[in-house]
Specification:
Elements lengths: L2 H12 L2 E2 H10 L5 H4 L12 H4 L1 H17 L6 E6 L5 H10 L3 H6 E6 L3 H10 L6 E3 L10 E6 L8 E6 L2 E9 L6 E5 L12 H6 L5 E4 L1 H17 L1 E10 L9 E4 L2 E3 L9 E3 L2 E2 H10 L2 E8 H7 L2 H10 L3 H15 L8 E8 L10
Parallel strand pairs: 2-3, 2-5, 3-4, 5-10, 10-14
Antiparallel strand pairs: 1-7, 6-7, 6-9, 7-8, 10-16, 11-12, 11-13, 15-16
Helix pairs in contact: 5-6, 10-11, 13-14
Bound molecules: S-adenosyl-L-homocysteine.
S-adenosyl-L-homocysteine binds next to helix 2 and helix 4.
Amino acid sequence: MSVADHLRRRIHAEGPLSVADVMAAALVHPELGYYTTRDPFGAAGDFVTAPEISQMFGELIGLWAAVVWQGMGAPDPVALVELGPGRGTLMADALRASAGVPAFRAATSVHLVEASPALRRHQATRLQGARPRWHDGLDSLPDQPAIVIANEFFDALPIVQLVRDGRNWRERRMAVAADAEEFVWTLAPGASPHAGLLDPRLRERAPDGALAEVCPAGLSIARTLADRLNRFGGAVLAIDYGHGVSAVGDTLQAVRRHRPADILATLGDADLTAHVDFGALGRAVTEAGAVQHGPVGQGDFLQRLGIEARAEALCRAATTEQGAAVRGACARLIHPDEMGTLFKAVAWTRADAPPPPGFE
Ligand code: SAH
């Protein structure tokens, strides 16, 4: 059975499905989902992420983690947690770089929150020496200070789309066309309870017909992490593409073989993501008593962590060809026309902690 067949059956049984249900099934259905069944990364796959572009990305984040740990007073034990670790590349590069701070490595246990069995196998191979522990969610993480990394994780979490209709916000749903097998978008009849999660300013002022998005799963993870920061200390670093201030607009997109794809025609066979609303995540973290630092553009963040010096160091030990590849990768990660400004970094800490490196 395909994801499309599964969704058609559900629609026949339950009626039209919310965008969140569609996204969750398409990406992480236990047997059929896009992530559950494959390794989508790299030139031969569907998309490329920052850690797959260059080892420098994970290395700088590993050093960031070690410096943050020192700033926390060097707690032992400390959990190094990654949400949605993909192929395990970022964590492998981070651990290698942070070996330069042996006391940090000695205090660290590695925890991976991953929904995909296929990607867990990749991570196990890649991170063999680090003896990681896997988790389905945040509940089973140890009660310890934690440094949590999430690169392109929040964009994969299911969103709800709401359309303004007079005084109400109605939920966008996916249905099956009456005379065909094709999927079509519709609107749920009544007012959606999710409207309560919208930025109050947007909720009141958005024009009729405007589409706004909320990510209940992302907000709930942000609140849980903020609670953990308050109880045990630590820091969270989230990097993703999205907007710093909540705004209206449809950002749901499917990507296949490095190109935009038709969402309704490629369910389960293409990556499906939405822009991350850092404004909304920041409000959730603040309401839970912690703070959000940033957002800072990925370009500025990596430059403040010294990516250019790291690139030059790699070039000195490289052939001309390798050097050109390193400089090219560096430009791709930081240039404003590439990943430098669309991608943004935020850090979450306890309210009394100083801004972590890159956020001063
Ligand atoms: N951080 C990696 C991978 C990003 S892709 C990188 O930068 O290359 C998104 C990752 O999140 C994948 O590992 C995917 O399997 C995982 N994922 C998606 N939804 C998830 C969920 N609900 N719970 C746990 N992991 C999830």
